[in-house]
């Protein structure tokens, strides 16, 4: 199926990387639209995609009216429809809808809750038409840290936690391990995607908080109290956000990161996604541990801190 993904402008590079981590096929990007051929349909896994469409056609803006007259709209139309148009120099929704109306059997317009939505994106001299497949309504905001039973101020936003899971490349029926699970943000998102989850933390208090949060979201889990630098079990997929308390001495953090990455080299079978604070030279630690840095992305948190999201292979 030919698909169009509307990328989040919050972080387009991360949005694109997340899609390509779990959807195979040829692709191209035009502005914030990613075109991709794929038979996979698990769109609800995505965190930084705004909308997903079936790509119906692309034509020159000057040829749009002719394209509307010759396109088989009834193949995609069901019960009721609406039209939405976007982009610089776009044509009004109503004008396009009036043109399509003439070629539909028993046309019904519904602007509030249509069964069929045709969206038109105007990009330079071209128009891309898509049939809305998934409006991406996953309630990430309802799972933010302050709405969980147990709060921790450094918890990742649920969207970012979901994205980290996807960037590991895990597709189906697998386990996600988090060696620094904290209050369980990454485990929650992985569990809600029906993956097996196992979390480690050296802090008993953190494990109890994680347990409360995981139970709240009805996620099946395993939690173990263990030093992340001494985990001995091998995993295909690991996703974690390294601890980075500003009050900690930099040399102490560097010692921890170095020991963890050297152990990661021993236990990682396929791919890990590790978040480093931006004030750390992550490349040096990854290289010293003899791991491979496949890709990296920047994620802005606030004025004084960003994260480096690193996709790592053994």
Structure description:
This protein folds into two domains: 2-134, VC0802-like (2-Layer Sandwich), CATH 3.30.2130; 140-313, 3-Layer(aba) Sandwich (Rossmann fold), CATH 3.40.50. The protein is 26% helix and 32% strand. It contains eight helices and 14 strands. It has helices spanning 12-22, 64-70, 93-101, 158-167, 185-192, 204-216, 250-267, 282-288; strands spanning 2-7, 27-30, 33-37, 49-60, 81-86, 116-123, 126-134, 175-178, 196-201, 222-225, 235-241, 268-277, 292-302, 305-313. It is elongated.
Largest sheet: spatial strand order: 2-3-1-4-7-6-5
CATH superfamily of the largest domain: Vaccinia Virus protein VP39
Mean pLDDT: 95
- Structural class, from secondary structure content? alpha/beta
What Rg do the Cα atoms give? 23 Å
Q: Which fold name is given in CATH as the topology of the largest domain?
A: Rossmann fold
* N- and C-termini, Cα separation: 34 Å
Number of strands: 14
Query: Which series of helices and strands comes N to C?
Result: EHEEEHEHEEHEHEHEEHEHEE
pLDDT < 50 stretches: none
Strand content: 25-35%
Percentage of residues assigned to helices: 25-40%
The coarse overall form would be: elongated
Indicate the CATH architecture of the largest domain. Answer: 3-Layer(aba) Sandwich
The number of helical runs is 8
Number of domains: 2
Characterize the biggest β-sheet. Answer: 7 strands, mixed
Give the SSE map.
Elements: E1 2-7, H1 12-22, E2 27-30, E3 33-37, E4 49-60, H2 64-70, E5 81-86, H3 93-101, E6 116-123, E7 126-134, H4 158-167, E8 175-178, H5 185-192, E9 196-201, H6 204-216, E10 222-225, E11 235-241, H7 250-267, E12 268-277, H8 282-288, E13 292-302, E14 305-313
Parallel strand pairs: 5-6, 8-9, 8-11, 9-10, 11-12
Antiparallel strand pairs: 1-3, 1-4, 2-3, 4-7, 6-7, 12-14, 13-14
């Amino acid at each position: 199926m030919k698909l169009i993904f509307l990328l989040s402008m919050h972080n387009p590079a991360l949005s694109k990387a997340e899609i390509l981590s779990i959807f195979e096929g040829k692709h191209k990007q035009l502005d914030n639209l990613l075109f991709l051929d794929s038979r996979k349909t698990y769109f609800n896994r995505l965190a930084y995609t705004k909308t997903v469409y079936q790509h119906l056609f692309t034509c020159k803006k000057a040829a749009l009216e002719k394209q509307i007259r010759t396109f088989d709209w009834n193949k995609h139309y069901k019960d009721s429809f609406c039209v939405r148009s976007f982009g610089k120099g776009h044509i009004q929704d109503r004008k396009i809808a009036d043109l399509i109306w003439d070629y539909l059997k028993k046309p019904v317009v519904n602007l509030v809750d249509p069964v069929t939505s045709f969206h038109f994106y105007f990009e330079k001299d071209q128009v891309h038409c898509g049939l809305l497949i998934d409006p991406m309504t996953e309630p990430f905001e309802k799972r933010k840290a302050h709405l969980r039973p147990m709060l921790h101020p450094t918890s990742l936003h649920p969207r970012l936690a979901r994205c980290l899971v996807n960037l590991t490349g895990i597709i189906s029926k697998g386990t996600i391990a988090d060696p620094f699970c904290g209050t369980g943000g990454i485990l929650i998102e992985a569990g809600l995607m029906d993956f097996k989850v196992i979390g480690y933390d050296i802090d008993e208090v953190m494990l109890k908080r994680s347990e409360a949060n995981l139970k709240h979201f009805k996620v099946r889990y395993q939690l173990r109290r263990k030093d992340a630098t001494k985990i001995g079990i091998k995993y295909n997929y690991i996703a974690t956000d390294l601890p980075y308390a500003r009050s900690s001495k930099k040399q102490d953090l560097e010692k921890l990161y170095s020991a963890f990455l050297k152990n990661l080299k021993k236990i990682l079978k396929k791919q890990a996604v590790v978040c480093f604070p931006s004030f750390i030279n992550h490349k040096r630690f990854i290289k010293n541990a003899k791991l491979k840095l496949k890709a990296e992305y920047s994620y802005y948190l606030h004025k004084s801190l960003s994260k480096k999201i690193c996709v790592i292979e053994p």
